[in-house]
Amino acid sequence: MNETGFDLQLLNTFAALLLLSSFAMLSQRRVVTMVNLLALQGVLLGLATLLLAWRTGKGHLYVSGAITLTLKAAFLPWLLHRLIRRLGVYWDSEPLLNIAGTMLVGVLIVIFAFGLAQPISALATTTTRSAIGIAVAVVLLAFLTMITRRKAMSQVVGFLSMENGLFFGAMSATYGMPMIIELGVALDILVAMLVLGVFFFQIREQFDSLDLHHLESLKEEK
Amino acid sequence: MDFLLLLATPVAGAVLLGIFGARKWAPEANVAISLVTFLASCALTARVASEGSLTAAEEQFFIDPFNVFLVTLTALVSFTTSLFSRPYMRIERDHGRVGPAQLRLFHGMYQLFIAAMLIALTTNNMGLMWVAMEAATLSTVLLVTLYRTAASLEAGWKYFILCGVGIAQALFGTILLYFASEKVLGAEGMSALLWTHLNGVKGQLEPTVLILAFVFLLVGYGTKVGLAPLHNWLPDAHAEGPTPISAVLSGLLLNVAIYAVVRCKVLVEGALHSALPSQMLMGFGLVSVVLAAFFLWRQRDIKRLFAYSSIEHMGIITFAFGMGGPVANFAALLHMTVHSLTKSAIFFAVGHAAQKAGTQIMDDIRGLITLSPTVGWGLMLGTIAILGLPPFGVFASEFLILTTAMREQPWATPILLLALGVAFAAIFRRVQPMVFGETSAKQLPHPPALVPVFVHLAMVLMLGLFIPPYLAEWFRRAASLIAGG
After folding, report:
1. What's the Rg (C-alpha) of chain A?
2. Does B209 sit within 8 Å of A119, measured CB to CB?
3. What span, in angstroms and rounded, lies between the C-alpha atoms of B477 and B196?
4. Residue A221 included in any domain
5. Of chain B residues 198-237, which have a CB less than 8 A from chain A?
6. Nearest by CB: B209 against A120, A178, A203
7. Chain B residue with Cα closest to A180
8. Which of A97, B4, B231, B400 is most deeply packed, by most CB within 10 A?
9. Among residues 114-153 of chain B, which lie with CB inside 8 Å of chain A?
10. A204/A23 Cα distance (integer angstroms)
């Protein structure tokens, strides 16, 4: 198992693509495209996990790769697309403030993320340790995506992208968490999305829109 | 056996009430299920008292003096809250605020919430603790939005997204913890995230990784505790949901979140040999106390007022755990207990007061005592207790915390005293005219459940005058456990 094998290069390519998709999400105005990017992240994550499973011969990584592909690459995007159709927010887009500025902040965040990951990477013994910085960057970029959005649906996509980053971090630092935890986390994400589906319909019933401008009345200066 | 019963009862109850929650007998069934859970927790407590700490299910669960008392407290308050919600939800139904679907949701999710909290408390696995904490959030999101009003939807959304992002930080912290422990304990088997194993080898864990892990864990679980500046979701979620949910959120969920923070602190402090985690806890605690005390002045909604009071008390508890040492830990545990009992009692009284007045706006609630002396006195006594007046138990714990602070962290004492004084004035000036004065309240169709209010207050009073020796012994053992004894 050498350090420069083809499979490792492929893994690093997946990591780079993951980071790229986070940037694409950051600059994307349309909700539907954001969901597609999320699905792409799910596919990359699933393939990376399966590749890592093959490389290390760890059985539980095959299982978690399969779960990732079904849940994050297929089921959740399908659910979100369905919600978008049912709620009629297909053409929704965000008036983003300043794409160039946001991207610049994003670049700074990536530098910060690599700095933050430095002590962890230095201690890691996994062959994928160079990807830890990318995982932290994906988490922070997803956070930035959430902050800059006004629509409920895009915030949720940002939230799921953050979870993707965390999952990738666990994988590259320790070859994944124990199976029971990964199952539990996947279950929580699934339930969260189902709760959210119900919740979106309630919001729309009340406001006729999923714009979060309506959800700003609870302030202190009443 | 008692342990299995403790966890299985609320889960089974959630399924049962999720299906039959709208039936006439559902509130009684809710009470019965909560009673069985409570009895199971008592049996478990008795067993731990006689046999010492124990583990179950291949060490995935464990009970020690620290969590067993929180388990009992959780089961007790969830039982009394189910007693309170019986007439409360019937009145809400008669007022047309909830339909059969919402009643099913309420009863089912209530039991699920209790189950999630009990799992979070008893699990030995730090990862499973995260899963259970997230489950506790998810099960209450739809309860906060139960009334489907604009304000409640906003509160629910804030609760979901802020706690979701917060708890994602805690997941990252858990991953880092696993990363550090895997080097010592090995990835094979399941021991690398088990708290008992981690506690045994905490001196060998890599300090640089653990401090990073602790920052993320503190921010993550701290969001759920409602520590400032991560507290934004808390007043909204407490004010807009149905009052039984406010009572359990405030009285129980915040305790469980603090429990998670303290478990992490014990590990990290053992690995670091420095006071940094303690200082972070003290800092967050003090900021929360001060901020909440001043925000109390600006409140007009009675449930928001007491939600901010919860933030203040969580700040005090966090500060006390930050100081550490057997006495401060003892005081913090006592404060958790009395705050939980008093705050839920206040919410019970507030719930019926708001139903009588038909509003939660404090200016419109007047003269409760003329129409219903029990509700009025319940609210008044609860307020006196929570404000830390003797002879109630809150006085005892706050006194202990303040005297310890004078000795160990003298700089913090004036800040704490000032904040407590400000909070006292803010709450008292609001509650006094609500209880006395001309009345505006009306009669309720169902007799309010006030037994839980006075039972809770009596227990708080007793804890202020005299702590039973077995309870004191228990607190002491838990306190020394946290102090790393």
Report:
1. 18
2. yes
3. 16
4. no
5. 206, 208-209, 212, 236
6. A120
7. B128
8. B231
9. 125, 127-128, 130-131, 134-135, 138, 141-142, 145, 148-151, 153
10. 29
**Chain A residues with CB-CB distance to B104 below 8 A:** none
Q: Is residue A1 domain-resident?
A: no
B373: tokens are 């002396």
Backbone angles phi, psi at B228, to 5 degrees: -65, 145
Residue A73 belongs to domain spanning: 6-211
| Predicted TM-score of the model (pTM) | 0.92
Minimal Cβ distance to A173: which of B131, B149, B175:
B175
Integer Cα distance of B68 and A212 in angstroms: 42
Q: Which of residues 101-120 of A touch B (CB under 8 A)?
A: 116, 119-120
A1 — pLDDT class (breaks 50, 70, 90): very low
The span from the CA of A156 to the CA of A161, in Å, is 9
pLDDT, tens digit, 9 for 90 and up, residues B207-266? 888 998 999 999 999 999 999 888 889 999 999 889 999 999 999 999 999 999 999 999
Q: Is residue A219 part of a domain?
A: no
**Residue B434 is which amino acid?**
M
Question: What is the rounded distance in angstroms from the CA atom of residue B175 to the CA atom of residue A168?
Answer: 11
Q: Which residues of A touch B176 (CB under 8 A)?
A: 120, 173
Structure-token pair, residue B208: 């640089």
User: How far apart are the C-alpha atoms of B417 and B402, rounded to whole Å?
Assistant: 8
How many beta-carbon pairs below 8 A join chains A and B?
132
Give the minimum alpha-carbon distance from A158 to chain B in angstroms, rounded to a whole number: 10
Q: Does A181 touch chain B (CB under 8 A)?
A: yes
Number of separate domains in chain A: 1
Amino acid at B439: T
CB A48, CB A10: distance < 8 Å: no
pLDDT at B373: 84
Does residue A62 form part of some domain?
Answer: yes
pLDDT per residue as tens digits for the range A124-174 = 877 777 888 999 999 999 999 888 887 888 888 999 999 999 999 988 888
A71-106 burial code (b ≥16 CB/10 A, e <16):
bbbeebbebbeebbeebebeebebeeeeeeebeeeb
